[in-house]
Design brief:
The structure holds two protein chains of two kinds. Chain A is of the alpha/beta class. Chain A has a single domain, classed as 3-Layer(aba) Sandwich (Glutaconate Coenzyme A-transferase). In chain A, 22% of the residues lie in helices and 19% in strands. Chain A starts with 13 loop residues before the first strand and ends in an 8-residue tail after the last helix. In chain B, the strands form two sheets. In chain B, strands 1, 2, 3, 4, 5, 9, 10, 11, 12 and 13 form a ten-stranded mixed sheet that branches. Classes of the chains: A alpha/beta, B alpha/beta. At the A-B interface, helix 3, strand 11 and helix 4 of A face helix 4, helix 5 and helix 7 of B.
């Protein structure tokens, strides 16, 4: 559903000639998933990244959707989590209680892949509302499965657009907890491991193991460090040597463009 | 309506809604733009059932219609969306203008609340919600009596206790049911089983009424057994413009038209007048959407299911 949907990268933006930001994001997302893992996926780029992982290095990845769909192989691009297109060629149809209860709450979900309206320095996510400068509140979608995944998955990954207003010091509404107040997950009383990676159209971010605040993992080719800092609303730990996010391979690009999202619904 | 009329549990939407009082707590079984009980929702609006409490895992067009019509005073939800057609416009506007009380949960906590209700438990513990503003807002607002931080009596681990949900009436849209209410649902079922069985009364809307012998061919697919069902509404295309897996696709054209009207309260009244108040029943509404010709276009491919 939409709260697990992702804001797509800037329309058609190419970071290096011939490769779009969304393609780099999808490949970076895929590389964070390991073969044999169990992942709960939101619609949009998380789904694209998961399918890419399955088609390359992680064929035994179990991909679960909160409505009760496992390992589906859609033929047409779905528009939502309850779109019949995403039920096609699944290995199991069940419901929330199975996927979110007896898998996620049970503790067997390795990774959760979410979208966010806002994400702050401790990886807290807002999918509920936006506060306008006038102070007026605009409601959007609420949690749906977002809070459950953020609370319970072993690793949480977020794919979102990199904008200063979307990456503020503190979120306008803490829908889904990361390392709240910089505290450890154990201290917070949460079972899941918390935020692991934030994949944007500029960089891959992680979280410092001591302070639990956001750290730069890699910068996408074509993005300058100053540009990244300028577009981030919170301070970032920056390593001395900043690695470049690996570009998608020729085979990854072929799969993305020809088989996974040929109509570029999500790889815009 | 089936040809044999109101025999046994098979009733019309109008008859069923006559038996739902204003002020009732109704649990809806739709998810975003899938399997919404539109036929019943329109009837609730025509009969002006007011001051409703509505609960739903992920609210969609069904709840948005009731809220837009001004019939909902209390909303208990896990999230909301019309998928790519955007957020739920009337629900969000009502929240912004504070014209209804809203308890905002999560998908799993809604499912657990229904599960507790369905099991006859008064509460259920959960490991979600902890350390979030979702919980803080519930504690400070309308959910204060429904959530409670607690520790496991055996291990001391921290939990949130959720009060069971037992709606007055649960409504679910299914692909097939027999005349006794034995229901089979194709595709994923989100929280339908828990939501249905938590209800004090359970009413289903079926696309097709089948024989009990048909049900008996694959009883393992019966998600809701007939003895729990009070009434069966037989309404083909009863969820349009939302999708019913293996029956028909969502009507993108109409959903866009809905969202366009829902942006403005005045235009929304025009929508309600045309598509709800000026229709005597669901068949008249389907005619306005293009009738048999349009329904044929929406019909699902038997292999793909949409």
């Amino acid at each position: 559903m939409s709260s697990m949907q992702v804001s797509e990268g800037t329309k058609g933006k190419e970071l290096v000639p011939g490769i779009r930001a969304t393609e780099i994001m999808a490949a970076a997302g895929a590389r964070e998933l390991r073969d044999g893992e169990v992942v709960i996926v939101g619609l949009g780029l998380p789904e694209v990244a998961t399918v890419l992982a399955k088609r390359t290095h992680a064929p035994r990845l179990a991909a679960l959707l909160e409505v009760g769909v496992m390992n589906s192989v859609p033929k047409d691009t779905p528009v939502g989590l309850a779109d019949s297109r995403i039920f096609y060629r699944a290995t199991c149809w069940s419901g929330f209680l199975d996927v979110m209860g007896m898998n996620l709450h049970r503790g067997v979900v390795d990774a959760g892949f979410l979208g966010a309206l806002e994400l702050d320095r401790f990886g807290n996510i807002n999918t509920t509302l936006l506060k306008q400068e006038s102070g007026k509140v605009r409601y959007i979608n609420g949690s749906a499965g977002g809070n459950d995944v953020a609370s319970l998955a072993k690793r949480v990954m977020v794919i979102m657009r990199h904008e200063k207003r979307k990456l503020p010091l503190a979120v306008a509404h803490l829908t889904s907890p990361g390392f709240v107040g910089g505290r450890s997950r154990q201290e917070l009383g949460l079972r899941g491991g918390g935020p692991w990676r934030v994949i944007t159209d500029m960089a891959v971010l992680g979280f410092d193991s001591v302070t639990h605040s956001a750290a730069l993992v890699s910068l996408h080719p074509g993005i300058r460090l100053e540009e990244l800092i300028e577009n981030t609303g919170f301070p970032l730990h920056i390593p001395k040597e900043v690695p470049a996010t690996p570009l998608p391979t020729a085979e990854e690009l072929r799969l993305l463009r020809e088989e996974i999202d040929p109509k570029r619904v999500y790889l815009r | 309506m089936s040809a044999s009329g109101t025999v046994g549990k098979v009733k019309s939407a109008a008859e069923v809604v006559q038996g739902i009082p204003s002020g009732a707590h109704i649990a809806l079984g739709g998810f975003a733009i899938a399997r919404n009980v539109i036929a019943v929702v329109h009837e609730l609006i025509r009969q002006q059932k007011r001051d409703l409490t509505i609960s739903q895992g992920v609210v969609g067009l069904d709840t948005d219609l009731l809220v837009g019509a001004g019939l909902v005073k209390h909303l208990i939800m896990g999230g909301g969306s019309l998928d790519r057609f955007g957020p739920v416009p009337c629900v969000n506007r009502a929240r912004e203008t504070k014209s209804l009380v809203c308890e905002d949960y999560t998908s799993l906590s809604m499912c657990f609340r229904y599960l507790a209700g369905a099991l006859g438990l008064s509460f259920i513990p959960i490991k979600s919600l902890i350390a979030s503003e979702v919980l803080e807002r519930l504690e400070a607002g309308a959910g204060a009596g429904d959530v409670q931080r607690m520790k496991c009596p055996f291990t001391g681990e921290e939990y949130v206790a959720l009060r069971a949900l037992t709606p007055d009436v649960s409504l679910v849209h299914v692909q097939v049911a027999d005349r006794e209410g034995n229901c089979q649902i194709d595709g994923p079922r989100w929280e339908n089983e828990e939501q249905a069985k938590a209800g004090r009364r359970l009413i289903v809307v079926a696309e097709e009424i089948v024989s009990t012998e048909y049900i008996q061919r694959s009883p393992e697919r019966t998600i809701i057994p007939g003895h729990r069902v009070e009434a069966v509404i037989h309404q083909p295309f009863g969820a349009v413009p939302t999708a019913v897996f293996r029956r028909y696709d969502y009507d993108a054209e109409h959903l866009r038209l809905y969202v366009e009207h829902a942006q403005e309260p005045k235009r929304y009244q025009e929508y309600l007048k045309k598509f709800v108040f000026d229709c005597r029943d669901h068949s008249e509404y389907l005619e306005k959407l293009g009738g048999a010709k349009r329904m044929e276009q929406l019909k699902a491919d038997p292999v793909l299911g949409y």
